[in-house]
Amino acid sequence: MTFTINYYWVVRSMSLRNTLLGLINLHLLHNFKICEIREIARKNISAKSEKHYSTKIYKGIWLLKREGLLAIVNHPSDPKKNTYSLTELGKSVIATTLKETVSYTPASQADNASKLEPLKNRLSEYSSALAAASAEAQEYQELARELPELFTSLEAKFLVAKERAVMFQGRLAAIENVLKDLS
What we know:
InterPro entries: WH_DNA-bd_sf. This protein is mainly α. Helix content is 66%, strand content 7%.
């Protein structure tokens, strides 16, 4: 079961936990219901099936609550109307993560030009790696159809290759966004 993240909040980690925290922060959600975060996440995360998607979102919110990053106000009769909000610890985790992963120093155009070439090289590397990982995943899928007796083994390898492809897809998106900012 693979998630595709269309953009990364935290480049060093593409965990669902960090993605949910990033969406809460990005959309300034103060008191929200699961249905609201689910709709926002649906635009940024895709899953293999609708059931899998909903389960992952609910589990992610539950884990954030369990870690003390989200507080819940229980609705007296309808759990779907429970509201969630970031705790001080949750805000602190977001601030720390942003501080660790996003450092912006205004630079002159000359400085930007010197940064373009290494980024373009990384873009090329990631593009090649994405193509290779995607082709590998596709091949495992085709082999699983041809060799059903190896389905379990091939499915595991397919998922690993697919995860790599997703990671490179996100890295490409991040580099492309930075290149747009520097241009």
